[in-house]
Amino acid sequence: MAAAATSFFTLSTMPAGVSGVVSHFGDQHLAGRLMAMGVLPGSRVEVLRSAPFGGGFYVKADNLLLALRSEEAQSILIRQ
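RESULT FIELD:
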C-alpha cells in the first residue's frame, strides 16, 4: 500500500488565526537563526498578524511570541 503524500506550505501563506506544525526549513542559513529563536521542527505555530504589502509576521511558536521577516516566514514549511 502506498503512503499518503504529505503536502507542505509556507508560514507566509497562512492567514491570521490559523495554526500548523513546522515540518522543516527551506533555507538552511535561516534555519539556524529560526531554531536559535525557538522555532523548531515539530513546533506549533500560529500567525497572529501579518503586515500589509509583504511585510513581516507576528507569530506564536509554542509559547513564544516572535516577529519574523517575510524571508524567514517563507522558509518555514508547515505540514498539512
